[in-house]
What we know:
Elements lengths: L17 E2 L2 H29 L8 H22 L3 H5 L2 E4 L8 H16 L3 H4 L10 H6 L2 E4 L7
Antiparallel strand pairs: 1-3, 2-3
Helix pairs in contact: 1-2, 2-4
Amino acid sequence: MARGAPHSRRRLDPQGARPAGLMRRLGGVVYDAFLVMALLIVLGFIGVAVNGGEANQSPLFRSLLLVAMFAFFGGCWSRSGMTLGMQAWRLRIETPQGHVPTLQQCLIRFVVAGLSLGACGLGYVWQLWDPEQRSWQDIASGTRVVVLPKPRRE
């Protein structure tokens, strides 16, 4: 990577990477769901404290929770292409050229993933019929999820 090149366009090493299957992706989703739940619980406690001990159900607070969720996913994806759950399952999001996704691609991916889940997971199951094993969020954002090779032990 050239000095001063945009961080989000860093090229990843695609050698040995293959498309991720549905079960491996869902494993990463479950891991990340626990992390996101913990984040939302902490923010919920803060919201209750700020609201004088009452549940905060305002649209502003709910919007802040959504922004916090995107900050988690978008930050991880645009920095390294992986969340903690994805690291555990050796998954990475990248462009077809092997770069980390841009923040815009991360936002599109985040929104479409929510729609995929809202459609009873149909967007994820879609990859079973796609010749490149892409889900709706992969197609919409111009990214792909790959399985990283196991590290070599020496």
